[in-house]
Amino acid sequence: MKPKKNPKKDLNRNRSVYFLTGLALVMLLTFIALEWKTYETNYPQYISMDVDDDLTEEVPVFQLKTPPPPPPPVAPTIIDVVPDDPEIDETPIAVTEPFPDTPIAIDSVVVEEPEEDIAIPFSVIESVPVFPGCENETDKRACFQTMMLKHIRNTFRYPEIAQEMNIQGKVYMNFVIQKNGSIGEIRILRSPDKNLGEEATRIIGKLPKMTPGKQSGTPVKVPFSIPITFKLQ
Fold it and tell me: How much is the pLDDT for 107?
């Protein structure tokens, strides 16, 4: 039995295609409507202004006037009434002092100035102490140091206990050449070992008596410092 409807006249045949096409058109129109932008062609005119660079405003200075402080209160004057002293009988005293016109015999008075014990360092003293044997040398300062080293070499004796313990180093000594040329006030400034310090003290104590140093022509004390090196070969 043949169908009564013509298949070509069926309206539902392409319904899905029409639906998708319509949906696509609707979405396209929606997108265009959302993204549509308009721009104004009439732009406002901007007004330019000239502004001075210096905008510092002068601030007026106000002086605050404060009233002066009140004067201090005046203390009342108190008058003490003191009774008169009773009369006292004066006892005459014999005058034993000479009158101003009487000459007074005054013996010659000797004022002794205290002797100042001043020590002048070797480096700044005017006339350095003279080591025996340097009397005729022109540079007595250099001769003094040369003779000091010679004395140390001739008097030097390494302590046996220090040799056994392999102790060596420098002993810094200080002594004072007195005003009479003798050696005194021997001190150990620094020493790596007691035995080395004792030997250095012995060497300095063997120094001969010298011609004392002078400052302005007056003998003075002269301190002197020297290192003595103890070194094992």
Answer: 56
